[in-house]
Amino acid sequence: MKTLLLFLLTAVAEIVGCYLPYLWLRKDGSAWLLLPAAAALAAFVWLLSLHPTASGRVYAAYGGVYVAVALLWLWRVDAVAPTRWDLLGAALCLAGMAVIMFSPRAA
Fold first, then answer.
1. In which domain, by residue range, is 79 found?
2. pLDDT at 26 over 90
């Protein structure tokens, strides 16, 4: 549960860190949005470093959670409902994350 929560926080930090510059560049937002964006991206990197397993495995598994959180963002922030295919894809990504992170490994 701790791993999944950490991945969720990491995904939100990354999406916020990328969404704020998007608002500045594409939606005529203030350049001041770049400051919290930089802080969010720094938090993203820090959160990824908190996992005790090999970094490549963490990055691969995190990608699955990122896909699911991005679709949730699409729905809640962009007000675009995900399709059943989006949801199926997110479920497959989360299943992949679970296999990568929670499968038994030799010590």
1. 2-102
2. yes
